[in-house]
Amino acid sequence: MNAILETALAGYLAFGQVSGEPQFGQTEIVKYGGVQVIHADGAVTLRLNEISREEIAGDGARQTVIMLKDELYPFTVTRHIRQWDDCAAVETWAEFRHDEEGPVKLVKADSFASRFDAGEETVRVMSLAGIWGNEAYLKTSTLAQGQTLALTSRSGTRDAWESNAAMMIEFGEKVDEESGKALGIALEWTGTTARSVKRDWSGSAMEIFAGVDMTTGPYTLDPGVTFVTPKAVLVWSEGGRGEVSRQFHRWARNHCMPHGHDLHPVLLNSWEGSYFSFTEKTLTDMMDGVKEMGGEMFVLDDGWFGKGKYARDDKNKDTVGLGDWCCNTEKLPHGLGWLADEANSRGLKFGLWFEPEMVNTTSWLAEEHPEWLLQERGRSLVLGRGGTQTVLDYTNPAVRDCLFDMIDETCSAMPTLAYVKWDANQHISNPGSTYLAKDRQPNLWYDYTKGLYELLARFQAKRPEVMVQACASGGGHMDFGFLRYADEFWTSDNTDPFMRVFIQWGASQFYPACAMASHVTDSPNQLTKRVTSLKYRFDVSMTGRLGFELHPNTLSAEEVAFAKRAVADYKRIRPIVQQGDLYRLASPYENTYSSMMYVSEDKSGAALFVLGSDEQGGREARIFPRGLDPALSYRVAEINRGARLHAGIDGKILSGRALMADGIAVSLEGAYDSASFEMRFAEE
Asked: Pseudo-torsion of CA 412, 416, 418, 422, nearest 10°?
């Protein structure tokens, strides 16, 4: 472990701890601790002393368990630090427990809370911020002496929107993709988060905190109950941002995602191709179309469920039925099992959309159990999408049991079900629970997320073979907490490839390509109305998990033929893109184009993408590959080809050393042009 990271992990700051660093001849207490409590007797400080330390090795990791106890109160903090053998990532988390005479209030309960000496270098904090349709945009702030930068997200359900649970801290005047010191920190948490970076008045000492956000007040912890913080994943690099990203990606594939080493299928999702308006024939026609283009899965999105007056159709759209997870047999008379069989008969796997966290007030579930909706006593409901949508009370085990039973029964009708899209389209806007006691209402935010994970874990245990996509109005579930139970996220509802260049560039700072679902959709784009070529749409989507979101019958015969070639090209490079090391070669924030390159672990193959990111168009770019073996020779082929070649390198065999030193001259024409290249080991 790097010395800087060791120092950062060495201590844990508690409010009230006596500082070991005298100032002006006197000691002081820590006033910005990661854990802050109100004891049962009203006292507010902690003075923690280490009482035990255990080193555990096994399962490809080394774990240190440190137990700290208050010198006066029966309050303990157990810290866990796990270092993986196959990547540079370190996980850390804390457990809080007490045996006081009454409840203790956790005012703050961070996963990571450390002070260390960073010198007097320039410090910058890079984070991902955005909102619906504009997720994961890079934001960088310089942290001056005496300043604190605070990042929070308080949706409760779509917390990756406002401020993603990951950040990168850079040290020194120059930090880029391949040089400079950087510390990446990401919380494994889908709920509210709070992260802060603080520099002291001299600029040398730093304090970093990351954990859950106590949104509406302290968490009430009863005697004998353990509060477990989310895990925080940390990566230190002296080789720039790129190495931080690659280590996060490797850790995610190896130790986080349920099927991290499986190749993700090329699928067609029905949403933009039909929205709520479809029949069984609409869906089977889509299956035929994606099969012809080389697809491997069909996913039925919203609009398939409900019954009677609350059945979803093209008239009521998103205003009814959420919470009633049964097939709308008036719309799909043969049922979901028949649809899955139809997909299977065509050689396609089948997937289905759910939105289990939300409910419409116009649903049988809400009629039968109005107390299961999150609500504040005496206040009318604040309603979201469609004027009827709100959030279910996942703190209540009965709610989770009911949801699990309905989902399980629905899935049982499809024994070959291979994929579930798990959506969430509403913030917590009614922050109250009829299940929690009056004095435990602030516990809602943490307990809601723990309840969500409990339901996801039950689903995963029952159907371990099913892949899950984390969706929340797009990228609202883009976090490692949900990726413990899912293998990808829907990166954004914005499928405009021009905007996806920026969104996916930001997401790639922490999340691997196999986790980023990226779909080819119609042009003009249904959201932005931007017109782009089919090649450009494919090239952008091929930098993540390629899929479709359109009705194939909107494509011409020539476009279908192009799509078949593009899908075949993607399948060939898919193991490299989804499982390889990422090298970001040119940023769309600094150029009129961007470039991303993926290299296989054994360096025998690579895939290179150059994507126009300027609306004016027309540019010459010299791209310098990285990550190749300088001693190997590579045959270079331009793939996903349109009417012309973009570089005079197609078919040539060049050494890795020459490719990295001399670069590739790429000519982009027009506003939205792009080029893709495949490199394979070849004998001279």
From this structure: -20
Task: Summarize pLDDT for 556-596 with one digit per residue, the tens.
Answer: 999 999 999 999 999 999 999 999 999 999 999 999 999 99
Under a CB-based contact definition with an 8 Å cutoff, are residues 193 and 481 in contact? no
Could you tell me if 191 and 448 are in contact, meaning their C-beta atoms sit under 8 angstroms apart?
Answer: yes
Answer yes or no: are the C-beta atoms of 77 and 94 closer than 8 Å: yes
The CB-based long-range contact list for 338-347 (8 Å cut-off, 24+ gap) reads 338/280, 339/280, 339/283, 339/284, 339/300, 339/414, 340/413, 340/414, 340/415, 340/416, 340/417, 341/416, 342/283, 342/284, 342/287, 343/287, 343/297, 343/298, 344/416, 346/287, 346/288, 346/291, 347/291
Q: What is the DSSP letter of 29?
A: B
- Report how far residue 340's alpha carbon sits from residue 652's, in angstroms, rounded to the nearest whole number: 45
| Residues 6 or more apart in contact with residue 662 via CB below 8 angstroms | none
CA atoms within 13 A on the CB side of 371: 6
Looking at 208, 231, 255, the residue that finishes a domain is: 255
If you ran DSSP here, which 8-state letter would residue 545 be given?
E
Coil, strand, or helix at residue 157?
coil
- Tabulate helix, strand, coil % of the chain (nearest 5): 25, 35, 40
Q: Are 421 and 489 in contact (CB under 8 A)?
A: no
341 is catalytic: no
Residues 591 and 573 in one domain: no
Task: Round to whole Å and give the CA distance between 475 and 493.
Answer: 8
Q: Which of 423, 479, 487, 496 is catalytic?
A: 423
DSSP characters over 428-463: --S---SSS-GGGGGGHHHHHHHHHHHHHHHHHHH-
| Residue 36 Ramachandran class (φ > 0 left, ψ -120 to 50 alpha, else beta) | beta
Phi-psi region of 144 (alpha: psi -120 to 50; beta: other; left: phi over 0): beta
- CA 111 – CA 80 distance, rounded (Å): 10
HSE value, Cβ hemisphere, 13 Å, CA-based, for 463: 21
Q: Which residues contact 110 (CB under 8 A, 6 or more apart)?
A: 34, 35, 94, 194, 209, 210, 211, 212, 229
Q: Which of 69, 21, 20, 78 is nearest to 46 (CA)?
A: 69
493 is catalytic: yes
User: What's the residue count for the chain?
Assistant: 684
Amino acid at 138: L
Claim to verify: residue 587 and residue 573 sit in the same structural domain: no
Q: Please, are residues 475 and 135 in contact by the beta-carbon 8 Å criterion?
A: yes
Phi, psi for 675 (deg, rounded to 5) = -145, 145
Q: What is the pTM of this model?
A: 0.96
Residue at a domain's end among 233, 255, 277: 255
Q: Is there a single domain that holds both residue 403 and residue 499?
A: yes
Catalytic residue selected from 70, 213, 493, 673:
493
| pLDDT class of 473 with cuts at 50, 70, 90 | very high
Phi, psi for 292 (deg, rounded to 5) = -60, -35
Element (H, E) at 163: strand 163-171
Decide if 606 is inside a domain: yes
Residues 6+ apart with CB under 8 A from 59: none
Which residues are 619's β-sheet partners?
Answer: 668
Q: Identify the domain containing residue 27 by its residue range.
A: 3-255
The structure tokens listed for 662 are 């001399």
User: Where do we find the tokens 């990271």?
Assistant: 5
Q: pLDDT per residue over 272-328, tens digit each? A: 999 999 999 999 999 999 999 999 999 999 999 999 999 998 888 899 999 999 999
Whether residue 540 is found in the same domain as residue 677: no
Structural domain count of the chain: 3
